[in-house]
Amino acid sequence: MRRLISILLYLLHSLSMEAASRSPYRIREDFPIFTRVRGPKPLVYLDNAATTQKPRRVLNAMVLYYAKANANVHRGVYSLSIEATQLYEDVRRKIAKFVDANSWREVVFTRNTTEAINLVAYSYALHRIKRGGKIVITEMEHHSNIVPWQLVSKINGLRIEAIPITADGYLDLGSIDKLLRDADMLAIVHASNVLGTINPVKEITRTAKEYGVTVLVDAAQSVPHMPVSFREIGCDFLAFSGHKMLGPMGVGCLIAREELLESMEPFMGGGEMIREVTLSGSSWNEIPWKFEAGTPSVADVVGLGAAVRYLREIGMDWVRRHEEELTQTALQELSEIPRLRIIGPESVKDRCGLVSFVLSDIHPHDLAEYLDRTFNIAVRAGHHCAMPLHTKLGLVATTRASFYIYNTKEEVQLLAEGLKQALKHFKA
Ligand code: PMP
User: Fold this and answer.
1) Per-residue pLDDT tens for 23-64?
2) Residues 389 and 281 reside in one and the same domain
3) Strands (E), 16-92
4) Are 321 and 246 in a shared domain?
5) What is the distance in A from the centroid of ligand 1 to the CA of 89?
6) Shared-domain flag, residues 200 and 291
7) How far apart are CA 299 and CA 69, in angstroms?
8) CATH at residue 176
9) Which of the listed residues 48, 110, 111, 114 should we mutate to test ligand 1's pocket, taking the one with most ligand atoms within 8 A of CB?
10) Whether 46 contacts 402, CB under 8 Å
11) How far apart are CA 146 and CA 137, in angstroms?
12) Is 184 touching ligand 1 by the criterion CB < 6 Å?
């Protein structure tokens, strides 16, 4: 009986722990940056699409790594190096599980999404797509998923065509068969960092596969915010950044199908990625190490491991639900503000946790500066590394509020209040 009671108490305790940890008010306590105040005003951080804040657990994991386990990886036969290697490789397994890859061999550590996409451009597209070949992107891509393709196209004489967007911020899929029929590669964003649109990448990949097209998904704004399954999407490459999902800056991932990685050329040459080197030539290490030249950012990888564990404990379903609630509040509050135009889909179900907008004729830079100075609210202003999209929308810049697990409804309401005050301040 006593045993039963203690089991029950334990269960109750763990349930209440769980409930507590799934509240943004409780979650905030894990983030030292939120002790930062300016006068009486706490920091309202709404620039999570650019980078997220880091919980104590991530910071501690990195400090602990340097304090207790620092050694170069894969090289030493001594126990410290073996331990460091184990920590590093454990994270690879964690990431594989987190994004539902087939195996840890499909996980390549890069610096960020940008490097992951460049890796595919230079190791895959440059060698595999013949002169006159075609790469399809979309009009809503981040520069990271435009410029690498332009660079290899220049070398190889490739064509780049873009899936257009509709006036309400969706992909216009009417022309997709025509675009993909003679394409070699499709590089598409999962969730737009400006419109917020979540693209149906699984369905689009299925169509691309019917035409034998290789598919890369830019998951920089999806993997941190919702459950994402590499296997379910069925794409060949998936790219994302650690710093946008509570991890440190300096580490990102490319998830790639094993047989593609096997057959691809290395990205960069140097130590670690080789099997044998002679003065006349070299052979390559096994995957994924073939793509990780030089000393990797081990402490960052360890930090990312702690971030993934934190997110798994909270649960990606909760993360998505919480962001949906905040986005719904934002759409509602902002739509009541006169002369405010929201960019992107109306339905919160089709959106990730961000809202971009223009407010009357106030320049987004002036608006962001005003919100910071007056309310200690951090929002992004500019073209958000998506100039072709802004050109298409007929805008030079937008203001963007983007949410994460520690943001609250009150913060969204404060943003709305700040925007109303801005109208008066700028007499707009
Ligand atoms: N793609 C998208 C959709 C993004 O939002 C970003 C970051 N804003 C990137 C790519 C590039 O990410 P990083 O700068 O971490 O390489």
Assistant:
1) 999 999 999 999 998 889 999 999 999 999 999 999 999 999
2) no
3) 37-38, 41-42, 44-45
4) no
5) 25
6) yes
7) 10
8) 3.40.640.10
9) 114
10) yes
11) 7
12) no
**What span, in angstroms and rounded, lies between the C-alpha atoms of 43 and 41?**
7
What's the rounded Cα separation, in Å, for the pair 123 and 266? 6
Looking at residue 37, its pLDDT comes to 86
301 and 341 fall within a common domain: no
Residue 395 carries which side chain, given as an amino acid letter?
Answer: L
The domain that contains 387 carries what CATH number?
A: 3.90.1150.10
Domain membership of residue 346 (yes or no) is yes
Which residue's alpha carbon is nearest to atom 4 within ligand 1?
220
Whether the per-residue pLDDT at 14 is higher than 80: the answer is: no
Q: Above 70 in pLDDT, residue 1? A: no
Chosen domain end from 312, 336, 352? 312
Q: Output the CA torsion sign for 230, 235, 237, 243.
A: negative
In a domain, 149, yes or no: yes
- To test ligand 1's pocket by mutation, which of 120, 249, 385 has the most ligand atoms within 8 angstroms of CB? 385
Number of domains into which the chain is organized: 2
- 350 residue type, one letter: D
Atom of ligand 1 nearest to the CA of 113: 16
Last residue of a domain, one of 312, 330, 363: 312
Q: How far is ligand 1, taken at its centre, from the CA of residue 144, in Å?
A: 6
Whether residues 156 and 299 share a domain: the answer is yes
Query: Is residue 376 domain-resident?
Result: yes
Which residues, at least 6 apart from 304, have a Cβ–Cβ distance to it below 8 Å? 58, 91, 95, 242, 245, 247, 248, 251
- Asked whether residue 379 falls in the same domain as residue 296, the answer is no
Nearest to 99 by CA among 232, 214, 206: 232
In a domain, 18, yes or no: no
Q: For residue range 340-395, what is the model confidence (pLDDT) as tens digits?
A: 999 999 999 999 999 999 999 999 999 999 999 999 999 999 999 999 999 999 99
Active site residue 385: yes
- 148 with 201, same domain? yes
Question: 8 pLDDT exceeds 70?
Answer: no
Q: What's the rounded Cα separation, in Å, for the pair 341 and 221?
A: 22
Residues 275 and 202 in one domain: yes
| Residue 19 pLDDT | 47
Which tokens belong to 400? 């963007």
Q: What is the rounded distance in angstroms from the CA atom of residue 322 to the CA atom of residue 353?
A: 9
Place of tokens 């994402």: 228
Residue 183 clears pLDDT 80, i.e. is over it: yes
Domain membership of residue 117 as a residue range: 79-312
Supply the residue whose CA is at minimum distance from atom 12 of ligand 1: 113
Q: Which atom of ligand 1 is least distant from the CA of 241?
A: 15
Side chain identity at residue 408, one-letter code:
T
